[in-house]
């Protein structure tokens, strides 16, 4: 009892900050190591007394989880050097003072005041959530363990390990199950017009593989009513040009039987009164997209919009992926029955229906909310009616980890509609989950090698793949992926595009281990290491970008061919600028793509910056899309001792407040501003009089958004506003998205600077 009493006295003596750290990590911060030993003794005594009613095995496992969780969370806090409590309180008070002073400066309406208080919404974004979690961390831990829930994969506990659902392993095994008669799709694989069967049973020859590896692709164009201009490309003999179906009968699509009845019900929310007379199940966009998907061609669609067609597209590729999985599994289960009923001693090679590993579909999405919606769509497609609910294992755990609390969103936080659509729900970008589907049951958190579908973020899949030289890494589960879906690819440019490239380098490689596969059931295409020539890649993005185009052109080898949507913008986002502003587009010359970076920097410091050094050209915001360019400019400005401040995605809240206040008051002449900060925050920067786009924005609508920020300060200096944008001949796609295709053609032909005056109606 003496130790316990001493521990209580120590707890009373701790500050609020120390108590918070104790609740969150289970031990005191190393900075206060003089109390560490005694506190550990007290905590151990407390945990033992609380768990005395439990078995020894349970308490050992729980203590181990707690220790690992605390250790990993503690490592996260040690990334930055520990500071004294007084220093942190000073920084917080300074941040509050900056916010209060900025709010006083802005005055005005509630929206403007909130946007000017750079840190207020962030306080609601992060700290409140952390406090809520720390107050109930032990309760959640004990509750989950009492329910028998495995927390090893929950990022809230600091440990991310693959969760193995041993309980349902045998129920979802393809090798030990057989096709149910009432499913009614036993003979679906015999249909001659089955696209799945035609694609997977095609036997390529060595000569054809050599052609695809060496010869360039031939292309042709086609105009479709809804998708617009399509580019069909293929290396093998010229295929028949695919034509858009004006009307689609669900029964003629060779969908797996349950999907024929569930799809019209699930998709009816997107059907308008205009569409229903023509087609009872697809919108015009979905009809043309599914026509391409069902032909098993690769597809690149760069016009995905989170506000308008995002959910339509998501439903369409979920239908295609689920149809593929159900047909593949039905074929395996049907062949299981045939092998069971065959005569002893007979051996046949006709039942090759599997890959080297089980996962068939890989879906790459940016946030947990996207994975949540995909799983809900799949469940809806599998449920024939309200009476016949499918059995979904680990559903409660899934909702807890991938769902979101509406109350977590800060009140009165106003952002553009597209921002609200993209960042809705749980926006954690580190996750992965395996999904197994077998007839009328669905298994979430299935081990990868027992999964049919893997849903993951680029970061989540990268941490499993690992890097060369790491001891613990695994990418064998990617060896037999037959459909790769990369949705919202433009967001990965704002996250880390290297993760996508790393994935593409490790997909469809021969596995290093057999993983218990029956080689007599493996298709020859997998044994020959030709999986990448059969893989269908579906790539969806909100924009056309050279890096995204490169993935589609260099990492897609589908023998059927590729289809890319290539519509050109007619007007451009400059037409959405509502302030009267002269725009100057200054062209820089570069010999190659690799030399553009250095050429742009030299052009800026030699030709552009000298014009803005004068004090008259104050309040100049420099918009920089690339973080590396931002660092280079920041270092140069420091070296030249220029009067500037800077904001990037890594800037602390207090520093953001100070930078915005200094810029608004004119205490700093220049403000370096990164695109990723604008993407994730969308603050309105007040006080801008001169704009410089160091490079054209990745998102074309950011151009008009930044230009329209000039109206945020109404001080009667409209005549002095300026906007300058740098571009080269290698920026044709970005330039067309900003000024339109006609102006782009003229600007690329002429080497002179282009002056445009936009009144909001151009």
Automatic annotation (TrEMBL):
Biased segments, Acidic residues type: 84-105, 112-133
Disordered: annotated segments: 50-137, 334-354
UniProt subcellular location: Nucleus, Nucleolus
Pfam families, A to Z: Utp25_C (PF06862), UTP25_NTPase-like (PF22916)
InterPro entries: P-loop_NTPase, UTP25, UTP25_C, UTP25_NTPase-like
MF terms in GO: rRNA binding; U3 snoRNA binding
SUPFAM superfamilies: P-loop containing nucleoside triphosphate hydrolases (SSF52540)
Chain ranges of the UTP25 C-terminal domain: 573-757
Highest taxon above the source species: Eukaryota
GO terms of biological process kind: maturation of SSU-rRNA from tricistronic rRNA transcript (SSU-rRNA, 5.8S rRNA, LSU-rRNA)
Keyword Zinc: no
Subunit structure: Interacts with CAPN3; the interaction is required for CAPN3 translocation to the nucleolus.
Function: Component of the ribosomal small subunit processome for the biogenesis of ribosomes, functions in pre-ribosomal RNA (pre-rRNA) processing. Essential for embryonic development in part through the regulation of p53 pathway. Controls the expansion growth of digestive organs and liver. Also involved in the sympathetic neuronal development. Mediates, with CAPN3, the proteasome-independent degradation of p53/TP53.
PANTHER family to which the protein is assigned, alphabetical: ORF PROTEIN-RELATED, U3 SMALL NUCLEOLAR RNA-ASSOCIATED PROTEIN 25 HOMOLOG
Protein name as it appears in the record: U3 small nucleolar RNA-associated protein 25 homolog
Organism for this UniProt entry: Poecile atricapillus (Black-capped chickadee)
């Amino acid at each position: 009892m003496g130790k316990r009493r001493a521990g209580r006295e120590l707890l009373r003596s701790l500050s609020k900050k120390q108590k918070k750290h104790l609740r969150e990590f289970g031990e005191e911060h190393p900075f206060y190591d003089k109390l560490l030993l005694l506190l550990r003794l007290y905590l151990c005594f407390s945990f033992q007394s609380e768990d005395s009613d439990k078995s020894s095995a349970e308490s050992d496992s729980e203590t181990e989880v707690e220790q690992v969780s605390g250790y990993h969370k503690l490592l996260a806090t040690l990334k930055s050097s520990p500071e004294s409590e007084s220093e942190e309180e000073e920084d917080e008070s300074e941040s509050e003072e900056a916010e209060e002073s900025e709010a006083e400066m802005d005055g005005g309406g509630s929206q403007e005041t909130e946007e000017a208080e750079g840190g207020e919404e962030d306080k609601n974004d992060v700290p409140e959530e952390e406090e809520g979690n720390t107050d109930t961390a032990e309760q959640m831990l004990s509750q989950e363990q009492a329910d028998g829930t495995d927390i090893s994969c929950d990022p809230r506990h600091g440990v991310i390990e693959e969760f193995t659902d041993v309980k349902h392993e045998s129920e979802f095994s393809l090798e030990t199950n057989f096709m149910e008669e009432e499913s009614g799709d036993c003979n679906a694989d015999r249909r001659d017009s089955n696209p799945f069967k035609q694609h997977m049973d095609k036997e390529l020859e060595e000569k054809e593989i050599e052609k695809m590896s060496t010869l360039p692709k031939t292309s042709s164009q086609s105009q479709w009513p809804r998708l617009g201009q399509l580019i069909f490309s293929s290396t093998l003999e010229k295929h028949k040009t695919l034509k858009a179906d004006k009307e689609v009968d669900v029964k003629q699509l060779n969908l797996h039987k349950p999907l024929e009845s569930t799809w019209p019900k699930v998709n009816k929310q997107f059907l308008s009164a205009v569409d229903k007379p023509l087609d009872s199940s697809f919108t015009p966009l979905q009809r043309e997209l599914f026509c391409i998907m069902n032909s098993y061609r690769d597809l690149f669609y760069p016009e995905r919009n989170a506000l308008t067609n995002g959910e339509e597209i998501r439903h369409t590729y979920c239908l295609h992926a689920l149809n593929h999985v159900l047909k593949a599994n039905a074929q395996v289960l049907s062949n299981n029955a045939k092998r069971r009923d065959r005569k002893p001693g007979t051996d046949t090679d006709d039942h090759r229906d599997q890959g080297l590993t089980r996962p068939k579909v890989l879906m790459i999405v940016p946030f947990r909310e996207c994975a949540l919606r995909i799983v809900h769509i799949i469940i809806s497609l599998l449920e024939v009616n309200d009476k016949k609910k499918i059995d979904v294992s680990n559903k409660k755990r899934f909702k807890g980890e991938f769902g979101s609390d509406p109350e977590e969103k800060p009140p009165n936080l106003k952002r553009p509609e597209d921002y609200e659509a993209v960042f809705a729900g749980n926006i954690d970008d580190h996750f992965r989950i395996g999904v197994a589907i077998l007839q009328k049951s669905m298994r979430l958190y299935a081990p990868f090698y027992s999964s049919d579908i893997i849903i993951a973020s680029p970061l989540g899949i990268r941490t499993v793949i690992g890097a060369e030289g790491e001891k613990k890494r695994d990418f064998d589960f990617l060896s037999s992926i037959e459909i790769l879906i990369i949705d919202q690819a433009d967001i990965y440019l704002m996250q880390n595009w290297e993760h996508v490239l790393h994935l593409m380098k490790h997909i469809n490689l021969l596995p290093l281990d057999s993983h218990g596969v029956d080689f007599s059931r493996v298709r020859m295409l997998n044994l020959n290491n030709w999986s990448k020539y059969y893989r269908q890649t579906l790539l969806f993005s909100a924009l056309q970008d050279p890096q995204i185009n490169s993935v589609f052109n260099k990492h897609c080898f589908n023998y059927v061919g590729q289809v890319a949507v290539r519509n050109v913008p007619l007007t451009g986002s400059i037409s959405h600028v509502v302030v009267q502003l002269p725009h100057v587009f200054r062209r820089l010359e570069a010999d190659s793509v690799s030399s553009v970076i250095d050429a742009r920097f030299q052009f800026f410091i030699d030709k552009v910056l000298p014009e803005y050094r004068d004090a008259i050209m104050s309040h100049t915001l420099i918009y920089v899309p690339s973080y590396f360019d931002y660092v280079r400019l920041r270092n140069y400005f420091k070296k030249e001792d220029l009067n500037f401040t800077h904001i990037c995605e890594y800037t602390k809240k207090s520093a953001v407040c100070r930078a915005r206040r200094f810029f608004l008051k004119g205490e700093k002449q220049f403000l370096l501003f990164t695109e990723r900060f604008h993407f994730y925050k969308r603050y309105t920067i007040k006080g801008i009089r001169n704009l410089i786009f160091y490079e054209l924005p990745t998102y074309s609508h950011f151009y008009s958004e930044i230009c329209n920020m000039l109206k945020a300060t109404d001080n009667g200096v409209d005549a002095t506003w300026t906007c300058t944008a740098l571009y080269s001949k290698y920026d044709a796609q970005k330039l067309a998205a900003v000024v339109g295709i006609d102006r782009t053609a003229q600007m690329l032909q002429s080497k002179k600077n282009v002056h445009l005056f936009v009144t909001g109606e151009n």
